[in-house]
Every structure is written in C-alpha cells, then in structure tokens.
Amino acid sequence: MEKYKELANLIFPNITKTVEDLEKQYPPRKLKEGAMVTRFAPSPTGFLHTGSLFTSLVSSRFAKQSGGVFYIRLEDTDTKREIAGSGESLLEQLAVFDVIPDEGYFSDSKECGEYGPYKQSERSEIYNTVIKHLIQIGRAYPCFCSAEELNEMRKMQEANKEIPGYYGKYAKYRDYPLELAMERIRNKEPYIIRFKSMGNHNNKIFFHDEIKGDLELTENDQDIVILKSDGLPTYHFAHLVDDHFMRTTHVTRGEEWLSSLPIHLELFDTMGFERPKYAHLPVIMKVENGNRRKLSKRKDEEAAVSFFLEQGYPKYGFIEYLLTIANSNYEAWREVNLDKNFYDFKLSFDKMSLDGALFDLAKVANISKERMAYKKADVLCEEVKEWAKVYHKEFYDKIIENEEFFISILNIEREKEKPRKDYAKYSDIYPIISFFYDDVYEAIDKTKMEWNPLMDRNVIREVLIDYRDHIDMSLNEEEWFNSIKELSVRHGFADNIKVWKKDKEAYKGHVGDVSEFLRIALSGRKNSPNLYCVIQILGKEKVISRINETLRHF
Ligand code: GLU
Fold first, then answer.
1. DSSP secondary structure code for residue 345 in this structure
2. pTM of the prediction?
3. Which one is the CATH code of 444-551: 3.30.40.10, 3.90.550.10, 1.10.10.1100, 1.10.10.350?
4. Is any atom of ligand 1 closer than 6 Å to the C-beta of 43?
5. Cβ 123 under 6 angstroms from ligand 1
C-alpha cells in the first residue's frame, strides 16, 4: 500500500536497505548436519548471575559438542539499567569457566564474526530495516499514547477484570488514519512503534520445546512495542531480528521467557522467517523454609559467580556441579568415567530437569573436594597461586617466597590411592597450613594454646623435652609412630587407645594425647595435617626451636 510506504519513508528516511539485502548480507551458515548455533545474550546490567553461567555453559556445550558455533551478543538496549564495563567483566568471568565464544562480542573494542555487529546498540540500521518493512506491509504502526494514558487504561482493565495490555479495542492507534499519524510525526510528537498482532487470545497454539516437550500456549494478541522512544528495540523484537540474522539454530534461554514465546512465534511467522528451535532451560532455585524460590541477587551470595571466584572454588568443581544440575544422568556417567574429561559427556535436552534446578552449595563443595584431592601437588600449586594472586595477597607472597616448600605442604597425603580430602576451595588451604610459616607460628599466643586441661603441665613438658632430645628424622612413618608409642610408654601413657580404655586409671592417657602435645607445640593447634609429614616438612631445627619456644611459655 502506497500510504504505508509513505509512512515508512517518513519514519525511516535514511533506511535504504531491504530485508532481502539483509538476507544476502547474513546468509545461512554452512554447517554440517546437526551442528547447532547457540548464543548467550547477556545484558550488561551488573554481575554475572550463577543462573546465567549455567545457561551459557549449557548453550556453549551444545554448540561445541555438535561442531557448531557459540556466540555472544551483548543486549545493551536497556540504557537505564546498564552498568558501564559490566559487559567486559561478564566475559572475563565466563572465560574463567571455559565459556569462550567462537564469535561475537568480546569487548567494546573487539568482536569477531560475519554476523555482527554483536552489540545491539550498534544494530539500529538492521532493526530499522525490518521495522520499515513491517510498516510497509501494515504490520507495524506508530503509537502516540502517553505513559499516563497507558496507566489509565491498565487501571480500567483491572477494574473490569479484563486481560491487561494493548490489544484489540484497547489498541488505540492500531487503525489510526495514516494521514493523521504522519501529520503528528511531522509535528515532532513523540511516539513508539508497535507490532500489529493478528492473533486472538481465545486461540491455542501448539509448540514443541526441546526441553519442555509439547506445549499448548495461548496465541498472542498484544500489539507489543518493538521500537522504544529512545530508538532502541525491545527484547522481543531484537530477539526476532538477531536470532534470525545471526542464524541461531537453537535458542537456549531461561524458562522465564516461555510466557512470551507466543509473541516471538508470531513475529517469526509474520516475517516469514524460519522459527529457530527453542530450549527453555530450568531456572536455578533454592529451598528456603521448605519453599522453592529463584536464586536471588539480593538474598543469596551464591547467586553471583564472583562469590565462587572469590572463595576459590576450583573451576572444574563448579563446572562439574553445573553439569550435574543440567543433566540427570551426568553423575552416573561420571562414576564410571572418572578418568575422562567432563566435557566428554554429551549433554542432551531430554535429560534436562523440567521444573527448576535446586542449587546445593554443599554439593559444589563435595564435588570440588573430590576433584581437588586427585590433583598433583605442583598442578594444584599453580591453581592456588593464580587464585591467591588476585584474592589473597598474604598467601600469595608466602607461596612465591618458596614454591617448593608450599608444594611439599600441599603434597601431604596427596598423590596416593586414597588422598585426603581437606580442601573444597583454595581459600580453605591457608587457614589449615599457615602455621608452617614461621612468622605465622611466631604470632601465635603461646599462653593460649589449647592444652588438654586434664593433663598435668609438667608431664606435657617432660614429654616434649624427651621428644626434642631424642628426635630422629631418619625414621619412616611407621617407625616414627612406633617411637611415639615408646615415648608414650616411657611417660606412663598407654601405647594404644583400646588398652587405655580398658583401664584408664592405670595410665596418664594414651598415645593420642602424646601426639596432641606435639601437634600443639609444633602447629599451635589441635588439628593439623598428618603430624609425621608436618615434622618432616618443618625439619629438625624448626621442630626443636618450636618445642623450645612452646616450653618458654610453660
Ligand atoms: N538479554 C536477555 C537476558 O539477559 C537474553 C535472553 C535470551 O537469551 O534470549 O535475559
């Protein structure tokens, strides 16, 4: 229709491209059969949410395992909520967890790929080309309603118990005479652009979601806003244009978008674009007082990926945890494939949880503990060093002062068939091992050491002196333990707990008490890593001087 064309040209005088031009500029990708093109489309409005990391990890895995493409698109059309620099920091955090795009937005000065720009605020020409087309075919129109007017309308709809929104008889400018609209535009009246829906909310549509299965949805009849007054598109419209012209095959996004799917389907159909496949991923939930709720930015520290980075959960522990919540068969696979890389597991849509995934921090810790325990000491040292460099300066300085020493500490009860599982995260390490460092040991208040109050101080002193004076560093672990038993017996302690239990009166205590004296003297604590190893790592001189230092405060 000529009039529609005139309106379209009035609104977009500088748009000379057509939808056909865009089709040529962004042709379908040449990919092998079954290859998926997925994307992660963050809004730069703050920190990386754990739920977003989950979505992006899953999206990238589907692309990678099918030999497809995973790209990142920056959805920066909500200028009011935008936080400067957060786009880049999101990407840095994603990269820590191996979510690395093949193409797309990398930073404000960098992007790569043939389907860009990948930053929505730079795609206006593309959006406007499509909107111009929709106006030309009579499926988009300017709306001059003010915010107050829309508010009034909503109130009235609520009062009448009607479906709220801008549709049917409430779509005031839907059939507005084009002449009048053009005049108002020429008079520089503010307006936005709406999509003209042909749907009816009494109709049902049937749809297959890759995860949710067959769905029955209510047809869209809302004339949604597609172009805002700031000249930027809304999410719905940008989704249509971007996922079509970036040739996304699978839209993997949070299930909170499911309710707007009918809008998206109508948009794709109206444009004659092939619908992408949709996979609506479970939202990460938390149980609180027996009720499920979404992991919340405000209430839950584990909602921010930065929490896991700061705490130093190893990335492989966290990624693996996310895989367990992604696919119900992951854990069973892992059990029989311990030697494999977790990326050898093939994710599938049909094993996705259907009704929200529950977040379980204890499980993140457990998986991390398991995996960390089997790391070689020098490998773990590198991981810890990298973490401490950013998050724990004191620890970092200690590590680099003498890496060999730190590796020997890390190697306590490691690199063996059944390693100890002490650490769930890098930040667990320093509090447990810091006593090895002399300045930390020296700073311990020796008058407050936690000696067993039932033990006679003189006895403790004698035991410590005896050990100090007969110290033999050449013993292996078994011989050393025997020497501790002998030491116990020499001082009236049972060399075995069972023996002591049978006749407590006959002894001052048992070999465990004697070990505890030594442990406290050498580490300042009742709990420490394996005592034999502690002694070996400290060396004769330090063992003697620490015992002397302890005795000075008796
Ligand atoms: N920018 C949207 C969001 O952050 C993207 C949703 C999608 O993946 O389509 O929720």
1. S
2. 0.91
3. 1.10.10.350
4. yes
5. no
The predicted-structure confidence for 438-481, as pLDDT tens digits, reads as follows 999 999 999 999 999 999 999 999 999 999 999 999 999 999 99
Q: Is there an atom of ligand 1 within 6 Å of 132 CB?
A: no
Q: How confident is residue 253, by pLDDT bands cut at 50, 70 and 90?
A: very high
- What CATH homologous superfamily does 5-15+124-281 map to? HUPs (3.40.50.620)
Residue pLDDT, tens place only, 197-250? 999 999 999 999 999 999 999 999 999 999 999 999 999 999 999 999 999 999
Structure-token pair, residue 219 = 């047809």
Best CA proximity match to 106, nearest among 84, 121, 88: 88
Cα 296 to ligand 1 centroid, rounded to whole Å: 17
Q: Is the CB of 42 under 6 A from ligand 1?
A: yes
- 39 within ligand 1 shell (Cβ under 6 A): no
220 lines ligand 1 (CB under 6 A): no
Query: Looking at residue 525, what DSSP letter applies?
Result: S
Spans of all domains in the chain: 5-15+124-281, 287-350+358-373, 377-436, 444-551
Helical residues (DSSP H) of 455-504, grouped into ranges: 457-469, 477-490, 497-502
3-class DSSP state for residue 541? helix
- Predicted local distance difference test score (pLDDT) of residue 358: 87
d(CA 314, CA 328): 22
Query: Quick one: average pLDDT of 52-71?
Result: 97
How far, in Å, CA of 477 to CA of 531, rounded?
10
How many angstroms does the Cα of residue 214 sit away from the middle of ligand 1?
23
CA gap 108, 116 in Å, rounded:
13
255 C-alpha vs ligand 1 centroid, how far in Å? Answer: 10
What's the pLDDT score for residue 373? 96
